[in-house]
Amino acid sequence: MNQPTASMHGQWSGRLGFILAATGSAVGLGSIWRFPYITGENGGGAFVIVYLLCVALVGVPIMAAEIMLGRRGKMSPINTMAMFVREYRQHPVWRLLGWVGLIAGFMILSYYTVIAGWVMAYTVKMTSGAFVNSTSEFVKTTFDQFLQDPWALLFWHSLFTVITIGVVLKGVEKGLERSVRILMPALLGLMLLVVGYAINMGAFTRGFEFMFTPDFDKLTANAVLIALGHAFFTLSLGMGAIMMYGAYLNRSTSIMSAAITITAADTAVSLLAGLAIFPIVFANNLAPGEGPGLLFVTLPVAFGQMPGGVFFGSLFFLLVMFAAWLSAISLVEPAVAWMVESRGITRPKACAIVGGISWLLGIGTVLSFNVLSDAKFLWGTIFDNLEYLTSNVMLPLGGFFTALLVGWFLPKQFSHDELQLQNPFWYRVWFFVLRYVAPTLVFIVFLSAIGLFK
Ligand code: TRP
After folding, report:
1. Single pTM value for the model
2. How far is the CA of 236 from the centre of ligand 1 (A)?
3. How many helices (H) does the chain have, and how many strands (E)?
4. Residue 434 per-residue DSSP state
């Protein structure tokens, strides 16, 4: 079996380049926008614990599996899966893993750019000083009114789509690595600033208790599924994004330490986001279960009261926008790489096609908050359905089959050689968790959410 040494699309400059890019993919709206709002909707403490367990027991081992598949395949997830089918004599049905990932990627990207568009709009709003000393009612009304305007949402969705595609156009090394190196430390710094403000402002203890005092009676089967799904979403797992980035990774980097570093960074940002937001919720009589608007009705209140809040607030939303951008790039890359490899399409053309499809699909999400907000089916609006299906169904399924492929179907030698762990004990631990624990957990959570199992 001849192993290509580098992918045709490029390669990271080294270990740090990969970790930076994958962290850039993981840290995004999932940590800063989605984690606080679903934690609020699902009662706090117990939900957070289940989420953390899912990250550790399902996320980390599956991330390692995705990286090694990508690094061995050196191509887009679709072609990487085709390679495993061919060279490791697997059943052709495994190719589906690549295809479902491609579809999930489009679905996520389509609403991701809409929400990121809100963040862009808020970056501009913050610079205007619109929220200085404003009440939480005012901030909430402003947000509700913003959502009522489909043209505004469409504008920001379009703009965000264009800048995302712009980076992917330039290719892996040039656009990505450089952006992450600057962004991540800055984002962490500003998050700490907001948490510092939350500590001084009074309701920190309540916010902290909300996040970390578990009340398992309140935890529903659906909440457990949401926590599991979010572990996939926030770590960019289950659709091939991390597999894709693994394809650009050199052979000397330790996969396990990379997976742990990326997960730790992502989890830290999520917890900080919660610690920044919930004290503000309780200090201002806002509702933790506010929903997707939570970020946008809490932080402007805090920045409005803070000295220098116009500056820090604008900077904060700007950094969140950058973080979302780096994540969105990883949603685009697998589809673009596949078109370039298999369809002979040039990179710019592939970018235009992917951007165009996602932009069109995104209109469904734009309208979910205004014109079509009452058109509910299955799990709610178009946006609710896209979010539920991708995060709670497609990504966990993708992860489940990734774990099965590496844990049960590929030769053990493969993962052993890829991981190259110094201590054989840790390899056995990882393999056991990937083979038994992770798939079983996903399976049980699915069954219980469907209601077969109580
Ligand atoms: N993880 C990113 C976030 O939390 C979103 C994301 C990027 C993603 N690429 C992905 C989610 C691939 C699932 C699959 O914002």
Report:
1. 0.95
2. 4
3. 22, 0
4. I
* Alpha helical stretches, state H, 284-393: 294-305, 309-342, 347-368, 382-387
* Helix, strand or coil, per DSSP, at residue 131: coil
In the reported structure, the alpha carbon of residue 246 is separated from the centroid of ligand 1 by a whole-number distance in angstroms of: 15
Q: Which atom in ligand 1 lies closest to the alpha carbon of residue 25?
A: 7
Q: What is the pLDDT of residues 128-161, one digit of tens each?
A: 999 999 999 999 999 999 999 999 999 999 999 9
Residue 393 gets the label, from left (phi > 0), alpha (psi -120 to 50) or beta, of alpha
The whole-angstrom separation of Cα 332 and Cα 350 is: 10
Amino acid at 151: W
Query: What is the rounded distance in angstroms from the CA atom of residue 452 to the CA atom of residue 438?
Result: 20
| pLDDT tens by residue, 92-114 | 999 999 999 999 999 999 999 99
Q: Return the SS3 of 5.
A: coil
Atom of ligand 1 nearest to the CA of 328: 7
Token pair in block for residue 147 = 């959502």
According to DSSP, the residues that pair with 7 across neighbouring strands are 10
Mean pLDDT, the chain cut into blocks of 10 residues (454 residues total) = 65 80 94 97 96 98 97 95 96 96 97 98 95 94 97 98 87 68 84 89 91 93 96 97 92 91 96 94 92 95 90 92 92 94 92 96 98 96 96 96 98 95 93 98 90 61
Amino acid at 31: S
| Residue with CA closest to ligand 1 atom 12 | 236
